[in-house]
Design brief:
The complex is a heterodimer of chains A (463) and B (112). Chain A is built from 19 helices and 2 strands. Chain A is an all-alpha fold. Chain A has a two-stranded antiparallel sheet. Classes of the chains: A mainly alpha (463), B mainly alpha (112).
């Protein structure tokens, strides 16, 4: 099946759903299932749109979509998580079906496209869907700030893309990578790369471009929290990772500056989570630190472990935000002390939340440990001792604040806190916690894939 | 020359986004920044005074060259997206005003 359906059908359904608002959420679930079927039956390769030349080297016009194992993993994560979040919120947030369809189309396009201007278009489509999702928080100022930061970010990204187009006369990523390496003059492309990196850094929550995160995720609910912290973060990390691995050339001083920004993101993110007394803030600052680690791995060429970290993080954060946002919606307070004893009457939910938190920390028996061990070993092999020290220090801080949080959530406070989690929520929590546990103990499938899942360089070299 | 003007507009809009606290002025600044970017995009397709519009006609035999049509297509898309974002921003601005009865961000007591 043609992967263009992954973009076209959700977009078409988004428009139709406005006409049949009553059934929008059911249409969303149907389209989600259809997307999964497309993913199962589609084959890896390049899709040429518009009947232009079917050789990539001559494809200066027209848009191409690239489906390889890297994109496939990203698409599975995005589509399955959106479907799960949609099903869980089918009654509570009935009006958001059209927006989730728009988000689905935008994010699928973002992950599939091989055209840089098209990437900007999908960045804006998914961005608009994200702003609309954040309106469910009922905090219009935070949404407005998010929109401003997003619009500035995408404008900077477009500025970078246009400069590259004026230099190389193409928007096709593969052809552009070939042209850049042929010209062998990296100093000229530093400015567009920085502009594009900042542009995507806004959405990927990288410090210091993430001032919007606190307002949006700090007031999030069971729809916006997992969507923005789980799905959007995963998709943006995948896109930024692809560009960092293949297009951007970080060398010399630029590499030092980028590494410094990412290291600062890890340390500051974890320190802010450590000093926060609000549960949602702890989770969102932890997300900021994690996204910086992910991009740092991409910068150091550890594509496969960065991909696994994105997937594990998206799953863990989905569980954690769902658990906490459901509780804060009922207690109307997200101070850690006000949620004391949350798990006393919710043992299963507590257990799944604990497993997700321990996986984020990287404790043995969970997939987070396998991933952390492997990327630290790879970094040690590359002689990046300073980075290892920073990550270990950050893990220590992360361990302290997450264990402190877990202890408070498990031990009874002054009040008897009772939060009802629907059966469907529990099933999702159990499924995700089990997957974190299974792959933590049986990691052989993880070792079967390597950095070659990203085939852009192969296409660049072989056509 | 036109490229310097477009970059000036872009920076001016960015400056406006940093210093303004009024929601409507922020949206206007965003638009100024975007217009700077649109002019920059159009300017890279410009190929000189003797260029003609990219429409196939008999004039191609006269040795005239076309301006690059791709930036024009890009800018058209970018303008549409910009209008969509502005419309959404204005809708959110209205929601802000309904909630706080003001457009000034400093006067709002929201834990954003």
């Amino acid at each position: 099946m043609n992967v263009v359906f992954l973009i076209a059908i959700p977009l078409l359904a988004a428009f139709i759903s406005i006409l049949i608002k009553k059934y929008a959420s059911y249409l969303l679930v149907a389209v989600g299932l259809f997307n999964i079927a497309v993913l199962i039956f589609s084959k890896n390769g390049i899709v040429f749109i518009g009947g232009f030349d079917t050789t990539i080297s001559a494809n200066l016009l027209g848009i191409t979509l690239l489906l390889d194992t890297y994109t496939r993993i990203a698409l599975w994560v995005v589509n399955v998580l959106i479907l799960v979040i949609a099903v869980l919120n089918i009654k509570t947030y009935r009006d958001y079906g059209s927006i989730l369809l728009l988000a689905m189309a935008g994010l699928n396009g973002l992950l599939l496209t091989n055209d840089l201007f098209n990437l900007f278009v999908f960045l804006e489509i998914s961005g608009i869907a994200a702003y609309l999702l954040s309106t469910s928080n009922k905090k219009p100022v935070s949404t407005f700030r998010y929109l401003l930061y997003g619009a500035i970010g995408s404008s900077l990204f477009l500025f970078g893309v246009v400069i590259l187009y004026s230099m190389y006369g193409t928007l096709n990523m593969v052809v552009m990578i070939r042209e850049i390496s042929a010209s062998n003059n990296y100093t000229e492309v530093i400015l567009p790369f920085i502009l594009m990196f900042i542009g995507l850094g806004v959405e990927a929550k990288l410090l210091p471009f993430n001032a919007w995160v606190k307002g949006v995720l700090g007031n999030s609910n069971v729809l916006s929290g997992p969507m923005i912290a789980g799905v959007y973060m995963a998709a943006m990390s995948f896109v930024l990772g692809r560009l960092v691995t293949n297009l951007f050339v970080f060398e010399g001083t630029l590499l030092t500056v980028v590494t410094l920004i990412l290291v600062l993101g890890i340390v500051v993110g974890d320190l802010m989570a450590f000093s926060s007394s609000k549960v949602r803030e702890i989770l969102l600052f932890s997300s900021i630190a994690q996204s910086s680690i992910i991009i740092l791995l991409f910068v150091n060429g550890l594509t496969i472990w960065a991909v696994y970290l994105i997937v594990a993080n998206a799953l863990s954060k989905t569980v954690m935000f769902l658990v906490i946002n459901k509780a804060t919606a009922e207690t109307e307070n997200d101070e850690v002390d006000s949620l004391k004893g949350l798990f006393v009457h919710n043992n299963i939910v507590g257990l799944t939340f604990t497993l997700a938190a321990l996986s984020v920390m990287g404790l043995p028996l969970l997939v987070g440990f396998v991933i952390k061990l492997n990327y630290l070993t790879a970094l040690a092999g590359a002689g990046q001792i300073t980075l290892i020290a920073v990550i270990l220090l950050a893990s220590l801080i992360e361990g302290i604040y997450l264990v402190r949080l877990l202890v408070k959530l498990w031990y009874k406070g002054e009040k008897d806190l009772r939060v009802e989690y629907h059966f469907s929520f529990k099933m999702v929590f159990i499924a995700i916690a089990l997957s974190l546990l299974v792959f933590g103990n049986y990691s052989t499938p993880l070792n079967e894939l390597d950095n070659s899942i990203d085939t852009v360089s192969e296409v660049v070299n072989n056509g | 020359m036109i490229q310097y003007a477009s970059i000036f507009l872009f920076v001016l809009g960015l400056y406006g986004l940093f210093i303004n606290k009024n929601v409507i002025k922020l949206i206007v600044s965003l638009n100024v920044m975007e217009i700077g970017l649109f002019i920059f995009i159009i300017s890279i397709g410009y190929v000189g005074d003797n260029a003609i519009a990219p429409i196939i006609s008999n004039t191609q035999d006269l040795g005239l060259i076309y301006v690059d049509p791709l930036p024009q297509a890009l800018v058209l898309t970018a303008i549409v997206i910009g209008v969509g974002t502005t419309a959404l921003a204005l809708a959110i601005a209205k929601s802000i005003y309904n909630t706080y009865q003001t457009f000034d961000l400093d006067e709002m007591e929201e834990s954003a």
